[in-house]
Amino acid sequence: MGLNRRKTRKMKMKGGVGEEYGLPPCVKLTYFRITDDQINAFKTVVKSPMDCFINAPQILNIVNNVTADIMRISTAGKTGFTQEEIEKIFIILSGYNHDFKGTTNSNDFSIFIANNLPPGNVVFAGHEGQSKHVYLIGRNFNGTIVYIDPQRGTICDLSLKDCQDFISNNKIFRLMFHSEYKLTLEQLQILGFTV
Length: 195
Description:
The protein is α+β, with helices and mostly antiparallel strands. The chain has helices at about 35-40, 50-60, 65-75, 75-80, 85-95, 105-115, 160-165, 185-190; strands at about 25-30, 30-35, 95-105, 120-130, 130-140, 145-150, 155, 170-180.
């Protein structure tokens, strides 16, 4: 799953969690600024078997350490989050429609990240194979693309085979995308949000 920049491919764009309701398509890669301090500040006092999604917003300072540990104690820390729940959480955070898009081609996944992720940022990524798992992929200011996975206690350079092995043997590879325009109050109500 080497990071090859030669070809540019597009991932299929659909409407996300509310596609059947005509919500705006999710055409923009969702990425977040991140610092080494954010990564180094990550800590948890609660062990949880299904906290991979909880780790991502914690590292990004969307939720603090205490809130993340409360989430780990809850049922969500034991069963994880569904794709629709994750998309709706991102909608609440931003007001934009979100779609955790998947591809079966690991090369497309790698090329898309290499061509679209600015330095100093991370994308919310995941895969499905024998199990489902989410993590962050970031680009250092020197251009190196890294895998960031607190559940595994791993930060590694994705140009190295040992690092690629964490994600390459899966069937579906996911990246979070968002719409160009915020959802209207009516569209948020369609999704079950009270406004």
